[in-house]
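Worked example (supplementary).
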Amino acid sequence: MQNLILYSLSNFIPETILVVTIIVCIIADLIIRKKSFAVTFVAIVGLVLSFVFVVKQWGLSMSIFSGMLAIDNYAVFFKLLFIISTLFILLFVETSKEMKTASHKNEHVYLILSLTTGAYLMASSVNLIMMYISLEMVSLTSYILAGYLKKDKRSTEAAIKYIIYGAASSGIMLYGMTLIYGYTATMNINEIFLYLSKNPITDTPVLLASVIMISAGFGYKISSVPFHFWTPDVYEGAPIPITAFLAVTSSAAGFSVLVRFFLVGFANTEIITAVKWQEVIIVFSIASMIIGNFVAVWQTSLKRLLAYSSIAQSGYILLGLAVVNSAGLFAVILYLSAYLFMNLGAFYVTILIHNKLGTDNMDEMDGLGYRSPFIGVTMAVFMFSLAGIPATVGFIGKFYIFSALINTNSPNLTWLAVVGLLNSVVSLFFYVKVLKHMFLNKPEKPLPELDYGYANILITLLLAVPTILFGLYFTPLLRLAENSIKIFGLN
Amino acid sequence: MDKFFIFVLIFPLLGFIINLLFGKRIKSEKFIGIFSSAVVLIPFLIAVYFLIYLFSLEPQSRFITLNLLSWIAAGFFNIQFSFLIDPLSLCMVLVVTGVGFLIHWYSIGYMHNDSMFSRFFAYMNLFILSMLILVLADNFLLLFLGWEGVGLCSYLLIGFWYEKKFTGDAAKKAFIVNRIGDFGFMIAMFLIFLNFGTLNISQFLAAIPVSFEFNSGLLVAVSLLLFLGATGKSAQIPLFVWLPDAMAGPTPVSALIHAATMVTAGVYLIARCSLLYVYSPITTNIVLIIGIFTALIAAVIAAKQNDIKKILAYSTISQLGFMFVALGTFTYWLAIFHLITHAFFKALLFLGSGSVIHAMSDEQDIRNMGALKDKMKITYYTFLIGALAISGIPPLAGFWSKDEILFKTFLNSGLIFYIVLLGIAFLTAFYMFRLVTLTFYGEPRYAANIHPHESPKSMTIPLLILCGLSVIGGFIGLPHITHLPNFLERFLSVVFDKTETALMMYSQVNKPEVSLEIILLILSVVVALISITYSYKKFSAVKKFKASRGFAKIVENKFYVDEIYDRIIVNPLYFISDKLLWKIFDIKIIDGFINGLADFIKKSGEDWRRIQSGIVQDYALITVSGIIIIIIYLIFF
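After joint prediction of all chains, the assembly is encoded as:
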């Protein structure tokens, strides 16, 4: 037993490093007692170290802690994605004016790291209990982060709403899990799969109900309709760097566990016909795309617009899961990599605008493209990428999602692709609306030019350049995605 | 070691990026000029090194594929970012970088004090990069990337002085006319991918002899479509109209892009796909006829033009016609030979004309020049040599390549074509010496306030070097009767040997007779000399210019080709788009539908928006009822 734990620990180094870093950050914060870059720097060092050890796990395929966690390429891909996004978020916080108004000085650093640790565990958990605990770990930190600006009423309100809504969702999920346990007598998803595929499926209503209840927990993490209600309010109330963090890391973590849950536990034609989860996913996906896009059309706040855009983007990603084959999963991985750059980029530009204007209302952004051409052009890059215009990485993501749907030759899935495409057209409307405000609308009186420092420009470029580069030369992303999904053994 | 070749591309790219990003901050014109020229010179030196390296290899192994990375891999569609270094592409690289370097150097003087100095060099570097990608690409898509890249640079540089309206119009015209050709190129690519499953040029060519007959429908279609692309880029009938207008750009641009390099891309494309053209002799005949017609019409028009650059532009079209004639008589190496010599003397002539324009304070009308030969000696002598070279006076470069084309046409296509070509050669010498005479001899006809002067050294030295190349450039491809080695033919033969084999199967190539060749050679020199003398006599005494009438007027107005195109293509197109497509189809049908749809979307978005009330209890209620509804639906339906 002791040996087993030691063996497991030797493959648990990336997580251990993060935990140690969190402790060091807390101690450092206690000693320094004022706002200091040193704490952030410690966190960055910890993340980079963790990165090195995560990369070492590439190619491994094993399960540790008695089948609680899996170490495989799929988990490695997500951990890398979390590290990159966390690094960016730490930089975002450093350059955001909004975060400087917080009464706590360095606490966000280790809260962010805790969320990342939770996300790590989500990506590798193969046991329902582990899935629940890691998801709660991410959620609890998210609540604190959402209410980080204690003096700001909206931030506090967002946190409260988030807690209530999150508690309800995870309660529903937990109930679903107990039903599954009652049915299969195991918590491990591999064993659940074995049980379901070996024994004839009776009592389908119980299974159905449990699967849908569990999807409620995951669906809330990825802001899929009808579990999306918290998204616009929290996104709007939370400080923008935190919103970006929730939109990318937390959402990607939700996908990592959702995909693993269904494609490991329930990916078998018989199970799919009995449990009908594919149809559930399709319904969620269509609803997310339509509600997300249609309501986004109405938004005047850039943050709310991005919130609805995230709901719609979740819908596109769910399309890839709905295909239930390797091409679909491949597209999901590809889309998430694209999503990392373009969504973080869109949020960072929002931060930069907020820094200067103190608002994210789009009416205030009239003529911004001329006041700061850099902001205008990079925003255009991210908006076009989110809309899926060619020569950006967003196009590649959408292209593979739709081609996976069409290549199944099933008429229903082809129709789904058509729905997705039409939704992209609608989404173009509000993405371009942002640019219309920046370039075509003239402000009432001429406003001064905005200057941004080198650090701001550099961070933006670090996101904008990959958005374009991977749109033109995407072979590395394809290789990465190809290798990340091998463990699922899908056809 | 082969990987080293990549620097040929990296340097111009570097030049482009630095000039674009930091050009405005770098105040020193000298630095920008020297830097931008150096990033073209270094690739030239690398190319020279690789030339020597290729010579050290066995002829059969003179093909180096440089596979950098996989660009697009989606299912069967696999495009590599890879380049082919072989004698043909290396010849092109040497011309592009060699002549390109000289023109960059010349531009330092020519563009002096221009407010957009650094941007000019950024575009020029980008052009060199695109052109190199074009000639080095080993698949059609990458070639097309370069093809569009040079098109873009051509557009940007024609419209470089965008404050003047006509430069913008000329740029647009060049771009739009080229799109017609690009359309053909793209359809050809689609057909190739559909039927051959690859876009790799060598794989495509290798598949032709295996599975196709001569003149099979697909090959004819593909070759015709590629040729349509070539007529766009290389300004042949019916798409030649953009090139004369392209002279609105700065003169170095005309020399580099619209004379020496880009416009020869079509010639290169067909030479690269020579096997395809041997397998579709129908297309080859069309190439020959189009080439000869273009050469004739352009030469006739050139004889009546008065703008110094327009004359050279029509002359370029005419000379490109000669290259297509060579392609149309299956002598591919010869087309490349004429391409090289033409690059030398035409770049020289353009740069010379630039020097004249510079000296005359931007005057371009040769009727307002005259007697410049004593004012600017270097320009005069180098220009004269360029003019002699293009007229075909031995032993200058143009003589060898042009005479060989005349001779091969006589052998392969018969007497009539030969006579027409001889006529064009006569016209060439005639319009060139009309230009030389009116510009440099006779009485000065320019306004008194213009004081012509010799150009600065940075302009005259490139002229002298190009002049030297125009003198000796022809010796790389001496005809058989001289009993001296023909370097170029032998060097390129390994590229075209499969083509030659296929050609043997198709037709009997006539054996050249030595006595005949000598007779024809003397004949063409005599024709050129008569034409030069006649032209000099006719124009050296001219004092007044009468308005032309009758046929001369038609020629002066370029056969009204632009006007005819306007009448039969542009105006009907405008009419249909405006009255039918826009006012009825677009506004009524499409806009109506779209606006209706948009209203619907906004309306439903508005309704759904209300659900987001901000009250968290409502949210929980909706979520839970959502779950219950789904469960009930799935269980009972």
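Two points are worth noting when inspecting this output. The mean pLDDT of chain B is 88. DSSP finds 24 helices and two strands in chain B.
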